[in-house]
Amino acid sequence: MLNPRKAAVVGCGFVGASIAFTLMQRGLFSELVLIDANRAKAEGEAMDLSHGLPYTAPMDIYAGDYDDAADCGLIIVTAGANQKPGETRLDLIGKNVAILKSIIPEIRRRNFEGILLIVSNPVDVLTYAAWHMSGLPANRVFGSGTVLDTARLKQLLGEHLRVDSRNVHAVIIGEHGDSELAVWSGANVSGIDLNDFCELRGHYDHRASMQRIYENVRDSAYQIIERKGATYYGIAMAVGRIAESIVLDQESVLPVSVVLEGQYGLDGLCLSIPSVVGKNGLESILEIPLSPEEDEALHASARQLKEVIAQLEL
Question: Does the predicted model carry a pTM greater than 0.70?
Answer without folding.
Answer: yes
